[in-house]
Design brief:
The complex is a heterodimer of chains A (107) and B (118). Chain A is mostly beta strands. Chain A has no helices and 11 strands. In chain A, the strands form 2 sheets. In chain A, strands 2, 4, 5, 6, 9, 10 and 11 form a 7-stranded mixed beta sheet that branches. In chain A, a hairpin with a 3-residue loop joins strand 5 and strand 6 (53-54). With 118 residues, chain B is mainly β. Helices cover 0% and strands 54% of the residues of chain B. Chain B has no helices and 11 strands. Chain B has strands at residues 3-7, 11-12, 18-25, 34-41, 45-53, 58-60, 68-73, 78-83, 92-99, 105-108, 112-116. In chain B, strands 2, 4, 5, 6, 9, 10 and 11 form a 7-stranded mixed beta sheet that branches. A 4-stranded antiparallel beta sheet of chain B has the order 1-3-8-7, with no helix packed on it. The chains are: A mainly beta (107), B mainly beta (118). Chains A and B meet through strand 5 and strand 10 of A and strand 5, strand 9 and strand 10 of B.
């Protein structure tokens, strides 16, 4: 199985801060990576697919990058509605696997 | 707008069989998509269970393959999952989802909590 490792596991930030979350795959997954945002009691919501392709309706303050084994999710200016947990997921091979999540909290 | 909605028993006894259904609205399960189940437990985070294609092909997580079966009911526009021989480790929120053409999960149900307990 391909292991997905996110860092950090949690972070505290203020509104307006730039936030970066990293995701590392245990082997090359090309750009077969998605990012999701999840708020408490809700299902995950797709932000990016193909590493950097923004899903419909996702604000442009979010950006994604990377290929191979190293990927990054960046929020350029954190807004109050962005406090949530973020997950990466590879769909390069079966079984599809998720990172353990990064919780973004209010400082 | 595609919407998915899970339904299930909420509580299943150990060694029993879990049956979940996902009703799809705003789109047809006969469309060229894969339909999926994902679960989330505090101990294991998000775990992909498996997919079923509109034509009936399946792809299961090897860790669950011996216990899981997925099916489609095109007349009701829903798909289902059965998980046999459940234990406390199967306690989780179960989500159904659609995989878009890019293979990411682009639509999700709201989730249904399944507890395994006697």
């Amino acid at each position: 199985d391909i292991q997905m490792t996110q860092s950090p596991s949690s972070l505290a930030a203020s509104v307006g801060d730039r936030v970066t979350i990293t995701c590392r795959a245990s082997q090359d997954i090309s750009n077969s990576l998605a990012w999701y945002q999840q708020k408490p009691g809700k299902a995950p919501n797709l932000l990016f697919y193909g590493s950097s392709k923004l899903d419909r309706g996702v604000p442009t303050r979010f950006s994604g990058s990377g290929s191979g084994t190293d990927f990054t999710l960046t929020i350029s200016s954190l807004q109050s509605e962005d406090f949530a947990t973020y997950y990466c997921q590879q769909y390069y091979s079966t079984p599809k696997t998720f990172g353990q999540g990064t919780k973004v909290e209010i400082k | 707008q595609v919407q998915l909605r899970e339904s299930g028993p909420g509580l299943v006894k150990p060694s029993g069989t879990l049956s979940l259904t996902c009703a799809v609205s705003g789109g047809s399960i006969s469309s060229d998509y894969w339909w999926s189940w994902v679960r989330q437990s505090p101990g294991k985070g998000l775990e992909w269970i498996g997919d079923i294609y509109h034509g009936g092909s399946t792809d299961y997580n090897p860790s669950l393959k011996s216990r899981v079966t997925m099916s489609l009911d095109k007349s009701k526009n829903h798909f289902s999952m059965r998980l046999r021989s459940v234990t406390a480790a199967d306690t989780a929120v179960y989500y159904c989802a659609r995989q878009g053409s890019n293979r990411s999960f682009d639509y999700w149900g709201q989730g249904t909590l399944l507890t395994v307990a006697s």
